[in-house]
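protien #1 (seq + structre)
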Amino acid sequence: MAMLVLFFIVFIGILFAVSIYVYDNSQFSKITGHSFISVQTNKEVRFLYKLAKNLKKVDGDNQLLFNIDLPQSEWKIDCIFLHESGIYVINAKYSSGWIYGDDQDIKWAQALENGKMNKFPNPIIENKLKIQEVKKAIPEVREDLYQSLVVFNNDCSFKKIELHSEDVDVLKIDELKAFFENRIDSALTKNEIISIHSKIEPYMVKKQPKEKAALKDETLS
């Protein structure tokens, strides 16, 4: 019995070590600097990690940017997905319950199972303001390339979402791959994607894992 317990502990330890190794070598880890522990303990970081994994499945030339904090802007941008079909500014929403909203309303609503109704700022209006800030940062890029995406997690249900603009979409995270399968127009070359990425990348706020921060502090002391 003791050997069986020991084997189980070793097996779990190996799985844990492999999971850490896979995460540390993931695109999301390298881009954001978020630690494996933060992904496991912070639901919003975990949601962004899942967003990155879903976008990685999209075909075509692309680049990802997370946590963009543009100068002289009050908005922090969750994600920008540079794809050969355009520039997708993503507002990530980790929400449960039933979601109601119109792209022209000031507030949207979230209805929970306990009957509670929460109001929250219209994520499309938020994203419109964020896109305006991106345009200011890279004014040489054509305005028709921008697309606003509001991405919710799969735990919510869209009860009544009304959209009136062609450059706006609201979808769940697992719908991303199918969404991009229909984006067949080639608007950006690989070199153009790389160029835009290089201009926005300096504004990314990269988290420093605690273990690396501690090592840096020891080196400086």
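ok now protien #2
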Amino acid sequence: METTIYYFTATGNSLDVAKSIEKSLEETELVSIPKSSNYKIITPVTEKVGFVFPVYDYSIPLVVKDFLNKLDLSNTSYIFAAATCNFLPGLALDKVDSILKRKEKKLNSGFVIKMPGTYIAMYGANSEKTQIKKFKQKDKKVTTIIDCIKNCKDHGIEKSKLIIDRLLAPKFEKSMDNFPTKDSTFCVDDNCIGCGICSKVCAFDNIKIIDGKPNWQHKCQQCFACIHLCPKASIQIGKDTVNKKRYRNPNVSMQDIINANSSLK
């Protein structure tokens, strides 16, 4: 193998991007970050390594941060990352670069890819028209990414044109410490059929099915996979998500997400 792409996905956006990159490269392997999280040290053997992940609170998800800290990149000479987000990337890519610099490496190329929004605590899924527009933009950006990877170009780290997200990033990143117990407001309505899909798509072993209903274990990372992917849309955050449109990336199947996130069961 020449390239390893590590990814974390909840509703499929980051996996869609990772697969789009992978199919245009030779000798490339996709590896789920949650499936590697139990290892104390992770040592890629490929010269090129990439990370694809969603932006959470203007930063990187905790699972991605923990993963990056475990990496031994002594075999790697070119590193890239793609951060998916609905609006602003904050300091997510800078965070990756700072972790790499502690390992005497750097982020050669960092890309921001706008994808349909998934933060259902605030808003429902984007309209189909908006989704299609973003997927076309994604395809265009992936072409640039592939060229950089093939030729080991130093693209640098992309940033938003606005500065507000970078100013707010430290404050929002600190709030992620409270993520684990935010599932205390999660509940199910009468439409729940006890299928267990919520448990299967959760990458953090945070959902146990007890008496046919999901019970959250306060290890949440606010990915909202359980809410978006429930086939009956029965999982709610109190009343905040009632009647809000759910989302799954149409280029990624439910089974793809289960396969990516089921290793911690």
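The mean pLDDT is 96.
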